Amino acid sequence: MSVISYTLEKCQKCMACIRICPTEALSMQQQRIQINREKCINCGQCLDACVHQGLQAKGSTLDDLAHYEKTVALLPPAVFGECHNHAEIEQLMHTFIEMGFDEVVELSAYEGAIYDHVQQYRKDNRGGYLISSFCPVVNRLIQMKYPMLLSNMIPFELTAEIAAKRIRQQYENKNVGIFYLCECIAKLPLGKFPYGNKRSEIDHCVSLVDLFPKIARIRNTKRLTTEICAKGLCSVASELFVQDEALSSTIVADGLKKVQLVLDLAEFGQLKGEHLLWLSNCINGCIGGNLLWGNPFEASINSRRHYASATKDAIELNNEEVILETVLFNRANMKSLKERMAEFTKINEQLEKLPGYDCGACGYPSCRVMAEEIVAGHSVLADCRIIHVKEI
Ligand code: SF4
Ligand code: SF4
After folding, report:
1. Closest ligand, as measured to the CA of 189
2. Domains of the chain (ranges plus CATH)?
């Protein structure tokens, strides 16, 4: 489910978002941007490209705290990349208590457990390469553009979801509200639309960058005693991921361009070894999340420092908590290979009738998207400006 929304009044119709979208999910129709929510993978590139604030990604707000008897914030360890030392981590943790949460659970010990489970899964599944599934953008990209690679994915639950489940059990009869403070926009919809169409135990997903003005205002010298888990940092910082000898033959790719390059090689059978492909949309891993306020390079330096001084052990998680049947979204709506091939043929038939200039004058990013829209019944050949001009 796309989390991108659009404000017509702010849009300058510059088309920058349409040009940059890697999945051609955006088009300009009737003088406004249309978002194809099936195609959007929540990568956030359009938000970065739009300098007019025509596009936004919004999560829940802290107003929702009032609806619960008890509230718990789940904090991803990626945010610690924004802190220069341990004192700043403990101050940040305390800030969320001052914001109104009753409890703050930082997730490094859960991430550490996932790191261990990845190694075990790898030992148990030899015979080809495996693809990480912790990044929802990469998961959606594979589902949409590389369906042949789906069987290579490690089907692990989202760490925050595992923690939320445990917390829900702990407070079984209480009206507890679980808020996931997200480091990237792709995680904002996961409370409502979790992997595999199941029910989520997360009640609200809140953007960390939206909280930043409040964090900056109320942050002070008060600290919440916090220990963090080194392995948990390995799960969220690309450069730390390969620390362990057992993961030395891992291909780490961050940023969508590199991810697509690795997936192209995998799809065309160019990866021969038993590699693990550790892929993330954000630069340097989750520490470069597009809902964090710093930059991925300093976050990397800070994470290295925290790694060296971390003292907490990973939590014990059993396979039932971690391994899922699928990490796919809207699985029920997935087309079969036969249906895809039939659709592909129809699209190609329409594509042959179009000029192939990819000029964008029709408002679609390419002639192929125009052909797809014709097949879907949303457009007709005469909507092509070049064909239209030739006909008059
Ligand atoms: S980049 Fe922003 S201003 Fe330009 S067309 Fe897209 S939404 Fe409108
Ligand atoms: S979030 Fe990414 S996939 Fe979705 S519309 Fe924006 S650029 Fe396209």
Report:
1. 2
2. 1-57 (3.30.70.20), 62-332 (no CATH), 335-392 (1.10.15)
Index of the ligand 1 atom closest to the CA of residue 6: 7
Joined together, the tokens standing for residue 270 give 């160019």
- CB of 83 within 6 A of ligand 2: the answer is no
Which among 24, 41, 47 is the best mutation to test ligand 2's pocket, defined by most ligand atoms within 8 Å of the CB?
Answer: 41
Return the residue whose CA atom lies nearest to atom 4 of ligand 2: 40
182: helix, strand or coil: strand
What pLDDT, on a 0 to 100 scale, did the predictor assign at position 248?
73
Residue 391 pLDDT > 80: no
CA 381 to ligand 1 centroid distance, Å: 26
List all residues 6 or more positions away from 310 whose beta carbon is below 8 Å from its beta carbon.
Answer: 108, 227, 228, 229, 230, 232, 233
Whole-number Å distance between alpha carbons of 119 and 127: 15
Q: In angstroms, how far is the first alpha carbon of the chain from the final one?
A: 41
Tell me how far apart the alpha carbons of residues 365 and 362 are, in angstroms, rounded to a whole number: 8
Atom of ligand 1 nearest to the CA of 12: 3
Q: Is the CB of 16 under 6 A from ligand 1?
A: yes
CB-count burial class (<10 Å; 0-12, 13-18, 19+) for 183: buried
Residue-wise pLDDT tens digits, 16-31? 999 999 999 999 999 9
